[in-house]
From TrEMBL:
The lineage of its organism: Eukaryota, Viridiplantae, Streptophyta, Embryophyta, Tracheophyta. This is Dienelactone hydrolase domain-containing protein. The keyword Signal applies. Keywords: Signal. InterPro entries: AB_hydrolase_fold, Dienelactn_hydro.
């Protein structure tokens, strides 16, 4: 399933093996905070009670296919994340971007304590609490449900995939996803990583794919390492840098392609 990426992965790993082994895992979750003052061009709207959550909703309201996008630590207000949500919507999905942080995302200002915040905003607990979102979508006749998660949202998506709530997930530069998670996900999973992401470096992603490959109960999987980009590349990109923009577009296209294939 992921054969076409294994060869480039080996090359990446060979290059990184020397540095990755000695450097401790380091979180880049707070790098590049989104510019919340940037001009917004949004086709969706904010609703105040989607299964109890404030949420940005966009896309094809009558579609029977829906995608829940789980944000990074900066939350559902980020303009670039909403732009991604709108684009997924244009591909024919109803898209929901819930505020999982109850109005208290991180902002990237100095002095913020990521560890403390993560204790108070566990993606594992958030996934348990999010069941009403999926129940509500099914009640609205949306039976093909996917989850796309970035950073924090990557762990959220994996936890959702353990609970049979989704038919496919995509995780981009995930935070705190571990090898053991790959034994428990129950639906097709796509993993998108950045070559220069020390939070989930290529060697971790390679291990994830290896566990998925060895599972006796085969589930479809796919992995790709994007060269020359760091943590955050898939949702917090430099809009004046053509290379970064192109990489993000490729990541988005792969995510939508995964949903096209598995949300029937
Ligand atoms: C951040 O929070 C953790 C957990 O609450 C605490 O142990 C740590 O001392 C805090 N770090 C700083 C720099 O305040
Ligand atoms: C964004 O990219 C442009 C062009 O590559 C560069 O000049 C600029 O410094 C970058 N901005 C940030 C915040 O990295």
């Amino acid at each position: 399933m992921a054969m076409e990426v294994l060869y480039p992965l080996f090359l990446c790993l060979a290059v990184l093996a020397g540095t990755a082994a000695s450097a401790p895992p380091h979180s880049r979750c707070l790098d590049n905070p989104p510019d919340l003052t940037a001009a917004r061009v949004e086709s969706g709207k904010v609703v105040h009670d989607f299964a109890g959550y404030k949420a940005y909703v966009t896309g094809a309201i009558h579609s029977d296919r829906a995608v829940v996008l789980a944000s990074d630590v900066f939350g559902f207000e980020a303009p670039l994340l909403r732009k991604i949500a709108d684009k997924v919507g244009e591909a024919g999905y109803y898209v929901v971007v819930p505020d999982f942080f109850n109005g208290q995302p991180l902002t990237g200002t100095p002095g913020e304590n990521l560890t403390k915040w993560l204790n108070e905003h566990s993606p594992v607990k958030a996934a348990q609490d999010a069941k009403p979102i999926f129940a509500t979508l099914r009640k609205e006749q949306k039976f093909s449900l996917g989850v796309g998660g970035y950073c924090w949202g990557g762990k959220f998506a994996v936890e959702i995939a353990k609970m049979n709530e989704a038919k496919a997930i995509v995780i981009s530069h995930p935070y705190s996803v571990i090898v053991g998670d790959m034994r428990e996900v129950k639906c097709p999973i796509e993993i998108l990583g950045g070559e220069n992401d020390p939070t989930t470096p290529p060697k971790f992603i390679y291990k994830f794919l290896n566990v998925l490959r060895k599972r006796s109960d085969k589930i479809p999987y796919f992995g790709k390492i994007f060269p020359g980009v760091a943590h955050s590349f898939a949702c917090r990109y430099n809009i004046t840098n053509p290379f970064k923009v192109k990489t993000t577009e490729q990541a988005l296209a792969l995510m939508v392609g995964w949903f096209e294939k598995h949300l029937k």
